[in-house]
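Deliverable D5.2: sample structural annotation.
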Amino acid sequence: MNLPFREANAPGSPSASLKSINLSVAERQCICASWEKASTQSDIGCELVARLLNDNRTRFRALLECKSGSFLGSVNYTTDDVNNMKRARSVADGVNCFFNKVISKLMDKDYIAEIQDLSLQLGAMHFRMKVWFQAENWLCVKNCLLDSVVSALLKDTKGTYVICGGLKKVQTVEKHVTHAWFKFVQFIIQNMKKGFLAEALNADSHAPPKTECASPCSTASNHSI
């Protein structure tokens, strides 16, 4: 499925330096309503974990193997598989919990500061839990999350349809919905990265000098962003 908001990695682009979020009241209402709808159609956290497992660029499968001690092989994973894997299911629950929390803040007066703080905390927690990302990993997480939300919205049989080639109706998600979600998720991911890096720098400043290289699962050598 070709989604309109998937983006390539462009570190020098204006969006890469975005420090705030510019969501209108209508856009915030749209995100709240579409999240509620998507959540009734699909388990977003579970969908996201399955997509991350099946996207080799994320290195999520290797990370999950490292954390769980289980060999996951090279097969494609479904949401049913995720539900049967304790560690993967736990990650999915964490995704749902986090987004329920940040979306509940969207209509607050100080929603920007509240969502930014939660995102910074989540990024720092990823470093403390030794979930270390490269720049490409963050981009894949963002795109997989957006894909998961849109895929869930497309399951709504009462959704919006367009005529394709004059022959059949094809379900679509309206552009203003995907645009609002893109800005929202980008803000969250950017602040997660900021929190992650701040925690990494803090850890480095208190760490003794390193004399040898250790494995990716036991050092902060892979925490570059």
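Annotation notes: The CA atoms of residues 10 and 16 lie 7 Å apart. Helices lie at 25-41, 44-54, 60-68, 79-83, 86-104, 111-128, 135-153, 175-206.
The annotation will be released with the project's public dataset once the embargo ends.
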